[in-house]
């Protein structure tokens, strides 16, 4: 298959591209604007493959999208390009509306024109796969799980913009018959994770001897999924999923934030012991994120039963691999710290 991956230079997109090049015969074209979050070195492991190509462009640019569709003739569009960080959406929501909503509209409209021009098997097998988040469902109390039918209740500018994009995708499926698939996934972690997110930020700040910022009292819960397991799920969905369907993807690995931070500190104490004290001594409770969602948890039984997908690693295995990767790949994150973002606090919304 020929697969167009928008946002392929990002954290999850690059994991998907590395998987497709290394474990399948598919051809992949990455379409990415290379914002602050787009990191070309994350695609270095596959850059020399003759089944891989790259175009730098904006999904809001209809001409650029149309040209790439005409030239590349994809069988699948895996749409991951987005502004993805909740804290940045608090500081500057405009880019989230533009890329996540307007950009998704442009992708859908161009995909529709392209799909209508196809014929036979090529038309029948085309898929537009929209990659989204569990945050569209809002925040859970102590019990319960998000299912595919949980009503939408987004509460941050990020999640509201993703909810809007999900609705657009389903509308293009329902109204125009575009063969769409939607996946809503829980928090990912793993190699090549951009340092603004909790897990890489804690690993890097711990190694640099800096305070480890835990928002609020650290009791907020996220359901963690290793990024390579998400990439496997995405492949299963666009290869075998039923058009019009939504699949929730999750790791069945709920942790309080403070437990995640403590787990990272314990691994570092073992792999890179400090000369005096423990990494946990660096933990600092800081002002909470405005509107901080309390708990996310995914019921992934549909993708398990319909598409035979389950996570391959536990949180304990995945976090060990992740910490080890950051220890062994300092050059990758040091470049980002030097040129783009150096782990300072974002999203306090105090003007
Ligand atoms: P990321 O921020 O690491 O990467 C986003 C990529 O999109 C970057 O390469 C960036 O350059 C590109 N991009 C941004 N704006 C663009 C534009 N206008 N045109 C073209 N390219 C653009 O994000 P991620 O964590 O890899 O997330 C990928 C997708 O998965 C997003 O849609 C996100 O909402 C969704 N998601 C993420 C998580 C998570 O835990 N990270 C969980 C569930 C769903
Ligand atoms: O320094 C920090 N301290 C802290 O306590 C940071 C950066 C985060 N946190 C908390 C906030 C969250 O409860 O940790 C939790 C995880 O935070 P993030 O890594 O920012 O992720 P989250 O806000 O949960 O959103 C992520 O998962 C869902 C992704 O960024 C989204 O793109 C995805 O849709």
What does this structure look like?
The protein is an alpha/beta fold and 351 residues long. It is built from twelve helices and twelve strands. The protein has a seven-stranded parallel beta sheet, sandwiched between helices. Strands 7-9-11 form a three-stranded mixed beta sheet. Strands 8-12 form a two-stranded parallel ribbon. Helix 6 links the parallel strand 5 and strand 6. It is globular, with a radius of gyration of 20 Å. It starts with a strand and ends in a 12-residue tail after the last helix. It binds nicotinamide-adenine-dinucleotide (NAD) and thymidine-5'-diphospho-beta-D-xylose. Thymidine-5'-diphospho-beta-D-xylose (TDX) binds next to helix 3, helix 7 and strand 8.
Structural class: alpha/beta
The amount of beta strand, in percent, is: 15-25%
Named at the architecture level, the CATH assignment of the domain at 2-190 and 224-250 and 294-312 is 3-Layer(aba) Sandwich
CATH evolutionary superfamily of the domain at 2-190 and 224-250 and 294-312: NAD(P)-binding Rossmann-like Domain
Notable traits:
seven-stranded parallel beta sheet, 351 residues, three-stranded mixed beta sheet, alpha/beta, Rossmann fold, binds nicotinamide-adenine-dinucleotide, 16% strand, single chain, binds thymidine-5'-diphospho-beta-D-xylose
